[in-house]
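Thread: quick sanity check before group meeting

JM: Hey all, I'm pulling together slides for Thursday and realized we never actually wrote out the predicted structure for the chain we discussed last week. Dropping the sequence here so it's in one place. If anyone has concerns about the input, flag it before I start.
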Amino acid sequence: MKQIVCYGEVLWDMLPTGKKLGGAPLNVALRAQSFGHKAIVISSIGNDSAGKEILEHMKLHGAELNHIQVSNNFSTSEVLVKLDASGSASYEIKMPCAWDDIQLMTSDLEVVSASDAFIYGSLIARQDTSRETLFSLIEKAKYNVFDVNLRPPHYAMPTLLHLMGKADFIKFNDEELFEICADLCGEKKSLEDSIRFMAEKTNTSQICVTLGEKGAVLFINNTFVYNTGYKITVADTVGAGDSFLASLISQLLNCIQPQTAIDYACAVGGIVASKRGANPSVSAEEIEKLLKSR
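JM (edit): ok, ran it. Output follows.
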């Protein structure tokens, strides 16, 4: 069992079918927990009924609550989620909210220092308080995992560069990779050349890029490892990338070979995309069946 700490937003996803517990760090933590790891979320909720309900739902999932702060300055986050005809999600994220107000706590520094992996995203760095807390926590971690999650207008290139520069592992989707790479080098590169450019620019030796229905590519040990995806019927894409990341990091922390790791992560991400909401149950039997379908 590994200890994985996830930092950032916890919230309600307001879907057309109703609200669902969400936020990328919480999604990653719950999926990692399902694989037998100790997963801890550092975040903040408002002192309101929506926040209390988040705690109740986290408790039902068996999640640890000791590192969830309660902000008296801002309300609990609710994010409007829109789904297009293919099930792809877009998000309307209000600002500020409680997770913009995460204070630096000694207990959080200690738990990050003791973790096997510290996972953070770009959205949480949009406001000063939570961004400065993140910068401090990163310095204590043994293995930093940066989930680039570009939600316009909630990011700035200097902050992204700082976070990438501190990362041991970076995850992009292909659109994010090409956008950042073009901004930094001023020209369009191939997928592989873009990955090598970012690895050199950020001094990061492990980079993963998700490719939607076409799978993912992992750059590790100076080698590219590919998965071309699995055939599934998409219900919605909410949380699929988070479950993919949790699965991949879980596999790599357990010293699983990169090809096996990315195949497994793509299978889990595909299964989540085939179901409603960010945190559906995924059985070992479902994963094995999809792995064998290729």
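AS: nice. The CA atoms of residues 181 and 194 lie 6 Å apart. The chain has ten helices and 13 strands.
JM: adding both to the slides.
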